[in-house]
Amino acid sequence: MKDSVEGLRAAVVGEVITSADASYEEISRTVVAEGQPRVVVRCAGAADVVAALKYAEAQQLAVAVRSGGHHGAGTGTNNGGVVIDVRPMDDVSVLADGVVRVGTGATWGQVAARLAGEGLAISSGDTASVGVGGLMAGGGIGWMVRRHGLAIDQVIAAEVVTADGAVRRVDATTESELFWGLRGAAGSLGVVTSYDVAAVRQPTVHFGTLLYPWTQADQVLAAWAEYAADAPEDLTSSLQLAPTMMADRQVPVAVMVCVSGDPAQRDAILEPLRHLGTLLTEKVAEVPYAEVFAEMHMPPGLRPRIRNGLFDRWSPELGERLLAARPEIPGLALEIRALGGAYGEVPADATAFAHRDARFMVNSVLMGPQEQAADFDQLWEELAPKGAYVNFLSHPTTADLERCYPGAHRARLDALMQSIDPGDVFRGPLG
Question: Which of 13, 36, 192, 241 sits at 20 to 30 Å (Cα–Cα) from 91?
Fold first, then answer.
């Protein structure tokens, strides 16, 4: 069948970009991955998504979907196929009763800035340039996860374009099974164009970092984990350990904190975190929630190796193994996030995201030479976590995906994907 890019251009309101266009080189790649798609469709609305899917079907081309383009596996681009770029769909509208309609092309920095004037917030990731669509696809572990759960837990409706070109409005009563799957199924069911999300009134939080000596890493980690496991749900915190190749192993241990809820109670919640060891510095202040989002700048050509695991409890053995791995794998960066609270109050079968019993997530990034990759992967074989989070996997293995979607969840997703996308148009990590 003849390739009709001009026909596609005539059918869409947004842009159709090919290798003949000056913007192609930039628009064809994601943050970590180079791609050479045949065409990139920058969609201005659901109708453009439908047109892009029809074109891909007619030309028998693979489809990739991009929001912010941050996923470590580079799923937002491909070679020789169609990239559906939703970034032009970035409207953020406050509806009634604190419900916010968010286009999936918006970034979380944009969303937070828009809601700041209303005194509203959505618990949603930690990086300003991450896209709404990508983060929501996997779940959304943000800076208020222990108080308000995952980002998907506050979604009350969504608009999605499925493989058959239908534009569907789904919620808990209308196509409830598809609504279940969209909340955590890694983009394997369609192109979500917008979410309706219940925001919370949270104009400010206490946010910042407490630093401890690198020589006290074992003490600080053990004491932090003991407190974080059952801390008040207003506290979301993480502990970060830099690669040992940096600053001759002497980078301090960082405890990152975000305390929401009643401002009068925040200092008391923070107090135990000031006594985990010999406190070097504390830089925690009351700030607008929109200011907690960091910027991420990836060095050119760097594609870090990212793996993670979810654990139902902390153990001394887990802490000891992680600390022992740092000199063994000098390029290893570790971040340990505390979960529980509202995150764990959601029933395990309520969403496609499964792991509601998890109290901690260990996230790891290999920043050093890829010669360390074998040791890095071996570490995760030894750790053998019960679960994993699909958004933090750069090279997902079959075992990783089984951890993301165990047992009944995977069976339910397989049945849903067969029903909604029998032709496997959305060849995501679950395809």
Answer: 36
